[in-house]
Amino acid sequence: MTPPDHRTDPPLVAEETATVLGFLEYQRQTLEWKCAELTPRQLATRAVPTSELTLLGMVRHLAAVEAGWLVGFGGLPFDLWPDVVRDRDEQFRVDPATVTAADVKAAWATWRAVAEAVRSVVGRLPLDTADRPWGRDDEFSLRWILVHLVEEYARHNGHADLIREALDGVTGE
To answer: Which candidate, 42, 47, 28, places its Cα nearest to that of 152?
Structure first.
């Protein structure tokens, strides 16, 4: 009798997938919580005057990061993905004097659509699927990309915590 191939063993794969996605969902929910109940102007407030970093910019940036790592991955169709702000500088550039509720609504709608597209990718492909994400020279596994997304969110959620504390004193996970 040969040992099971853990790459295709459904209970283990399902458990691993649930764990990685669970951590990614937790980080997404943390970002939403950090931005909850803030006005468009507050969401567009810079972390410090010399930086373009804002909470709304982070929402736009993280949507672009998730899409950027998985557009076209595993041969999936490009129409799975919503349009995101591709220019990194433009992702973060939000003017508190002109930002509107519609700008905020659009950023969150795109962010949610990207998260749904990522869930679709994970539902269609095994974690060990390897491919070259759009615009990259190297091959990465889906597992590596998802863990990287958790790291990206965790880092920016630390920034979000500091911005939120400066805005109204709210801190915590």
So the answer is: 28
